[in-house]
Amino acid sequence: MYHRDRGGAGSVSSRSELVGGPVDRKRINDALDKHLQKSSPSTSRGKDKERLSVPSTSAGKSQLDSRPASLSKNKCSDGDMFTEEQNELVESAAEMLYGLIHVRYVLTSKGMAAMLEKYKNYDFGRCPRVYCCGQPCLPVGQSDIPRSSTVKIYCPKCEDIYYPRSKYQGNLDGAYFGTTFPHLFLMTYGHLKPQKATQSYVPRVFGFKLHKS
């Protein structure tokens, strides 16, 4: 059938060259087929794709995870650029800007409509004067210049101003409402303007009126 070479290193090459017979060829073909199936390009590529997909996903995930960290780091670094005094100045300037925008807004039609609802709900308080009988008031400023005075409440019945009872309202700058708002409001909604108070308090001593002098 075939000639065996019992030599050491040359035995493998002599076998491959001197193989003959159908049985041995079939075995060799089967062995080659198995070897090709194990090392086929499609299989190896599929495995390579699987291997590559894992690191690519993890890399993408790590990049996504690193983005918020970098953004938060930048935010922290930006916040650290300002001192505490500078932050207070920025907040104060932002508050003033909002107030100056607000004083213009309440003079518009939309602002008036919003303030009308608050006026009907007594959000600005009532007049503390007894003879005004709980007349709802409107906010007013004594000056249009910021930081001149705090906001006051204006009574359209006695036409006088008072300190608001709410501490929160009392801390607001009067310039954020201005000197124009309550009067323009009553001109816009004329039907809400009450009649001027005619009754006033008369001081007496033992039932007698005091002389004005």
UniProtKB/TrEMBL annotation:
An example of a Gene Ontology cellular component annotation for this protein is: cytoplasm
Where is there biased composition of kind Polar residues?
54-74
Q: Where is the signal peptide?
A: none
Comp. bias intervals (Basic and acidic residues): 23-36
Pfam families (UniProt xref): CK_II_beta
Function, please? Plays a complex role in regulating the basal catalytic activity of the alpha subunit.
What is the name of the protein in this document? Casein kinase II subunit beta
Organism annotation: Linum tenue
Q: What is the lineage of its organism?
A: Eukaryota, Viridiplantae, Streptophyta, Embryophyta, Tracheophyta
